[in-house]
Amino acid sequence: MSDLYLTNSLTRKKEKFIPIDPPNVGMYTCGPTVYFYPQIGNWRTFVFEDILRRVLVYNGYLVKHVMNITDVGHLTGDNIGDADLGEDRMEKEARKENKTAWEIADFYIKDFIESRDKFNILAPTYFVRATDHISEQISLIKRLEEKGLTYITKMGVYFDISKFPDYGKLGGQKLIDKRKASREELKEDKEKRNTFDFALWKFSKPDEKRHMEWDSPWGRGFPGWHLECSAMSMKYLGESFDIHTGGIDHVALHHTNEIAQSEGATGKPLAKYWLHGEFLKVDGGRMGKSLGNAYTLHDVVKKGFGPLSLRYLYLTAHYRDSLNFTWNSLASAQKALNNLREQVLAAKIQSSRTSLSSEKSKKVDDYSKRFSEAVTDDLNTPQALAVFWEAMKSNIPSEDKYDLALSFDEVLGLKLGEVSEVSKVPKVSKELKGLIEEREELRKEGKFKEADEIRKNIEKKGLKVEDTSEGPKIKSQGP
Ligand code: AMP
Ligand code: ZN
Questions:
Q1: Does ligand 1 come within 6 angstroms of the Cβ of 251?
Q2: Which CATH architecture has domain 5-277?
Q3: Which one of the ligands is nearest to 228 CA?
Q4: Is pLDDT of 83 > 60?
Q5: Is the distance from the beta carbon of residue 47 to the nearest atom of ligand 1 less than 6 Å?
Q6: Which comes out higher in pLDDT, residue 73 or 255?
Q7: What average pLDDT is seen over the chain?
Q8: Binding site membership of 279 for ligand 1 (Cβ less than 6 Å)
Q9: What's the average model confidence in pLDDT over 406-426?
Q10: Closest ligand 1 atom to the C-alpha of 31?
Q11: 94-108, 399-413, 459-473, range with the lowest pLDDT
């Protein structure tokens, strides 16, 4: 197995991965805020983290993976760089949907788990809710209080960043300056001592009845958003562990504050390696609910695309590069994945164990080695896919192709071991059904040019229409 190299945000360098207690690896991933369906950018990050976990396992490590569920305390203000501003996302959605925040959380957690399975993302060893760890969070605030790192205002208990000299080390001075420039004036709580001090505990407003609130030594309220990750990582992985991950937006604020809380309390490094995934953009720009382009997995499926096609699309870019989502790029990914399935299926069907010539045996070893080098070189999935394709198109025996495909798929997670004739027939969405019917109507009316336009639209989705004696049939586009 090749040595594993990962880019550590803490040092801003690609480093050889050396776990604290090999072969064990502790890995903490910031999970979903369950006030709505994740958008496809969130899923890009969750898939990158899944690849990391699979590469660790591929390299022989025993991974304990913790993912949190943010079901309280994540305020809307983090969009403008201040997680203490604005409304609690859970309570806001509860009002909108006329439910309790607890019902909202349960609904979206269930949806997250179902969608996660559709993406073939491995379930974490511990998938834990912030609201199940209130006492751990209160204990952590007490620890910070004993060390003189907190103060209390009328609005909450704050972490005093002036008492933690390492504040901002994750993103570096540049990021701190950028944050300063963008939001010096945003200070909702006038008693806050430093702009970047952040809430560990927020008091419920006297005139407000929250769905989620708890008693604490300082008053009734709820934990600040960052606190849960410090408390839960400590509980399940110990005070220092190997890897902490998230999306790139977490560097400046959430992870910077997690480090302050955890290291402030323990005096030990929180995590040895910090990995951050770049953003998914849509049509070259920012994705936002208000822009109407924050697509969810459900939007993608409604348009006739499979979750694994989206997973394939994510893998075509390096996790540290931003990736631009367009419906056309997803159609190409669907087509490529279908072609790969055909290749793997052909190899499976044609497999018959013949002895390998020494030249072919060397080739098989070479593909294995190059694939392993790619994924262990900071998770270079585009390179790994290129090696995969090369192997599938080579002249090595089908049996070895199939074995290689299954072994590569342990890392890529495209469910290639499940290909069969049946899985080649794609599911037909409502939209697609509409298109097929429309095309049939046009053909009956002799409008072949218009019908052909619709056929082209269907093909853009990586599918093809075959007109049979029983009517039109939809198939995946084969090689
Ligand atoms: P949230 O549910 O908002 O806490 O986000 C879940 C994960 O998605 C976090 O790791 C975020 O950093 C990440 N994330 C948020 N927006 C994007 C995006 N556009 N592209 C990729 N990752 C994102
Ligand atoms: Zn977190």
A1: no
A2: 3-Layer(aba) Sandwich (3.40)
A3: 2
A4: no
A5: no
A6: 255
A7: 89
A8: yes
A9: 82
A10: 6
A11: 459-473
- pLDDT band at residue 151 using 50, 70 and 90 as cut-offs: very high
Q: Which of the ligands is closest to the CA of residue 278?
A: 1
pLDDT in the model for residue 331:
96
pLDDT at position 302 is 94
Ligand nearest to the backbone CA of 233 = 2
Q: Which atom of ligand 1 is nearest to the CA of 30?
A: 10
In this prediction, residue 78 has a pLDDT band, given cuts at 50, 70 and 90, of low
Q: In the chain, what are the domain boundaries?
A: 5-277, 289-424, 430-476
Does residue 246's CB lie within 6 angstroms of at least one atom of ligand 1?
Answer: yes
Q: How far away, in angstroms, is 458 Cα from ligand 1 center?
A: 31
Question: So what's the pLDDT on residue 237?
Answer: 98
Ligand 2 mean position, distance from CA 129 (Å): 12
Give Cα 479 distance to the centre of its chain.
Answer: 30
pLDDT surpasses 60 at 80: no
Is 289-424 the same fold as 5-277?
no
Environment class of 289 (CB within 10 Å of its CB; exposed 0-12, middle 13-18, buried 19+) = exposed
Residue 15 confidence (pLDDT) above 60: yes
Question: Does domain 289-424 sit in CATH 1.20.120?
Answer: yes
* Residues annotated within a binding site: 30, 229, 254, 258, 289
Residue 447 pLDDT level (bands cut at 50, 70, 90): confident
